[in-house]
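thread from #wetlab-drylab

HS: before we spend reagent money on co-crystallization trials with nicotinamide-adenine-dinucleotide, can we at least see a predicted complex? here's what I'd submit
DV: go for it
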Amino acid sequence: AGRLQDKVAIVTGAGSSGPGWGNGKAASVLFAREGARVVCVDLNESAAEETAGIIREEGHDALAIRADVANHDDVKSVVDRTVGHFGRVDVLHNNVGIVEVGGPVEASEESWDRVMNVNLKSMFLTCKYVLPIMQKQKGGAIVNVSSIAGIRWTGVPYISYSASKSGALQFTRSVALQYASDGVRANSILPGLMNTPMIVEPLKEVYAAGDIEKMIEIRDQQCPMGRMGDAWDVAYAALFLASDEAKYVTATELVVDGGITGK
Ligand code: NAD
């Protein structure tokens, strides 16, 4: 049996914002390989479909749903459709995240609101509808994606991103403690510098005037392990926290950064 055998998992941001593997896409495919039925949620319908398609091609069950995780009605409908289709929710992987560069002076108010809504309010909305279900089931695992940018300066001013990722940590601990006696666990993952579409595109302008190879080289050098991580490194951490192997792990954080924060 797989490590998530017969569990139903919702993954937000299950597509990729560019070519290659984003964290949510990798986690969705990995969860399915481990026996989960996966609900792939993304704002980009074709990206959600693409991930669900990979899962189905490998012979597993997946449902693709287009939704804006910052929109209340969209999120409610994701949870309703998941329960309608699969009957339960065992894993909620709040993976979605966007980054917009700028400090308090440079960033617009709209940018601040957008990032806070997609990264943090989305957790509030998904939990609002998933927690009562998990409570009734007397079990469930919530895995929220934060970032090392939520606990330290990374050299790039993206104030809304840092604040949202910091907020995600205490949000997660608070949920974990409130629901610990219901058998519902909640933990955060803090990825470091991962070579995913998200990190490459928006930071193009910040590093070496659009020279992506150069940027990746600079980022690699910042990592004690000498290279950036990838989406699978984050996905395996999410798999552990989502699975029953982590049944005594709650209200904590798992850093996946190749040693950056250990320095
Ligand atoms: P990605 O950009 O490749 O994928 C994110 C997906 O989310 C995209 O498919 C996008 O369409 C979707 N999305 C965006 N806004 C949405 C919305 N409003 N509703 C629904 N879906 C929406 O990103 P990634 O690099 O795989 O990052 C995934 C998570 O990992 C994010 O939370 C990110 O902050 C976190 N993270 C990434 C890194 C890194 O270095 N890549 C580091 C730390 C944390």
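DV: The longest strand covers residues 184-191.
HS: ok that's useful, forwarding to the group
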